[in-house]
């Protein structure tokens, strides 16, 4: 029997508000433990929560950007459980009446577009953070994060592979960053993912028994955790076993998932509506104002780049995957109006230097203006394209501008005809064998001659001239 994987993701995204969701404590990351707390987020008796309007606005922004419907009325509920990081003994979340439902996200999977449905997006508060110091048999508790606003984005089980799960996550993260509601920082926990996965006979419509892998905090780990879990379930099913519905954790050093202790997952949350908070009525005029304030989203920007700049769809996809990379690209065009050239440089040199998808391009020392200066030096014939890459690397390591590097290294291109002709004559003389083979029809040898000329000129000869002159000289017999 052949099986197929079924995956649904629950993503928690921390909203970029300055204060917490039900009190005015700061949400700033990295402060001294327990310095950003008050009676409300500490859950003292007798206090009353007040909803942060900005948190609601950001949640609505996220919902609209993912095609969700905003429900006219939603409600906060108490999710009751006992854990040391939850001083109130309950988490305020939304349960039966979430803020929004029925959204979707388009992802690319094996080159095809696929729609992943979003079941709901709701608001909730974060819990505190426990830091265990096993060697000392000690646990530390930091409640700064308690009450920080989150949205939970729950997908339908529409995802069919670990790669697709990562595409979905990347797309979602990119949108949240584009609309400015979340910084997307997975290391600091601003974006966390629970991955649900089951198997079923290929083609079947029924869902199999799932397991949930909690709190996976990088794209790579999501992929690894899912791959491991799919393999584990597969071998269990193939050997006649049964999947147990359970919550598991991912051990990133061993690359495996393992069950959480059963006490921790014996859940009976006893949800009920929070009597201290009024139902949320999202004014439809306000919702429309928020909708019209949304920036251009990655999908729309992708289409516009293709049409406006006439770059290939692939380039546009890479450039618009991150808002900052797309901004960098468009900033370059303000100084240097050749979209395809700029795109090539960003996709190869710039992204390679930033190791990946452009994290940190906003503060990259080679600003759009500096990159443009370099590209202009190629256009006006000062340097050739190959040398330009060396100049780029030198700019990265020394922080100098293109012109300076070129002058210091003396890598100006040789475009002087007689100088190049002289070098070529010398090389033709020195390689009679290759010359006769070339003349006998082995035209591929042109590469050999170009290589020799470049070696002799330390890469500085104008490649266009070299090619022309070589072809002429070699065909004279
Ligand atoms: P739970 O009650 O365990 O939280 P839900 O039905 O609320 O389960 O779904 C939680 C997440 O799990 C959703 O993202 C959903 O798409 C996904 N999911 C539900 N059932 C399955 C399944 N059988 N296989 C894979 N994912 C599933
Ligand atoms: Mg769940
Ligand atoms: Zn507080």
Description:
The protein is an alpha+beta fold and 477 residues long. The chain folds into three domains: 3-287, no CATH class; 298-409, no CATH class; 417-475, Arc Repressor Mutant, subunit A. It is built from 16 helices and 16 strands. The protein has helices at 53-65, 162-178, 219-238, 262-265, 284-292, 298-309, 313-320, 323-335, 339-353, 368-379, 385-398, 402-409, 417-430, 432-439, 446-456, 463-475; strands spanning 3-14, 69-70, 73-74, 77-80, 90-93, 100-109, 112-125, 129-133, 138-142, 149-155, 191-201, 211-216, 246-251, 256-259, 272-273, 280-281. Strands 2-6-7-10-1-11-12-13-14 form a nine-stranded mixed sheet. Strand 13 and strand 14 (256-259) form a beta hairpin. Helix 6 (298-309) packs across helix 7 (313-320) and helix 15 (446-456) crosses helix 16 (463-475). The model has no long low-confidence stretch (mean pLDDT 93). The site of adenosine-5'-diphosphate has 15 residues, from strand 1, strand 10 and strand 11.
Tally of extended strands?
16
Percent helix, as a range, is: 40-55%
**Cα shape:** elongated
Q: Which band does the percent of strand residues land in? A: 15-25%
Tally of individual domains: 3
Outline the low-pLDDT stretches. none
Give the spatial strand order of the biggest sheet.
2-6-7-10-1-11-12-13-14
Which distinct ligands sit in these coordinates?
adenosine-5'-diphosphate, magnesium ion, zinc ion
Main sheet, how many strands, which sense, barrel? Answer: 9 strands, mixed
Mean pLDDT: 93
Separate helix tally: 16
First and last CA, distance: 70 Å
- Rg measurement, Å: 29 Å
Structural class: alpha+beta
